[in-house]
Amino acid sequence: MGLRRDEQTDALFRSILSLKSIEECYCYFEDLCTNKEVRDFGQRLEIAKELELGRPYPERELNQVLLRFHQDYCTLRRDMISEGILCREEGLYTRLV
User: Fold this and answer.
1) Per residue in 11-67, pLDDT tens?
2) DSSP characters for the chain?
3) What is the phi/psi pair of residue 69, to 5°?
4) For the chain, what is the radius of gyration of the CA atoms?
5) Which one of 29, 51, 61, 73 is at 20 to 30 Å from 87 when CA atoms are compared?
6) Among positive and negative, which fits the CA dihedral 70, 87, 93, 85?
């Protein structure tokens, strides 16, 4: 699925790429997201690091990885698909980023 490319999203990404320090990132994301949203992004980044890029994972194996981070692995898996971190094809899940 992935993100839709449009001018607004391009502008958002350009603004993020312009940040020059961790402190600027904190200020920027404090205005843009809730604390929970930022923590969730960080959690999904940690999960993505546990998965080999491009390797297809059966649902059961992926769920075992997700369970190490959160009990509600179904919601976590759906969120990662909707955010373009994972894709699902023919019952297999693949890390895209």
Assistant:
1) 999 999 999 999 999 999 999 999 999 999 899 889 989 999 999 999 999 999 999
2) --PPP-HHHHHHHHHHHT--SHHHHHHHHHHHS-HHHHHHHHHHHHHHHHS-BT-EEEHHHHHHHHHTT-S-HHHHHHHHHHTTSEEEETTEEEE--
3) -110, -30
4) 15
5) 29
6) negative
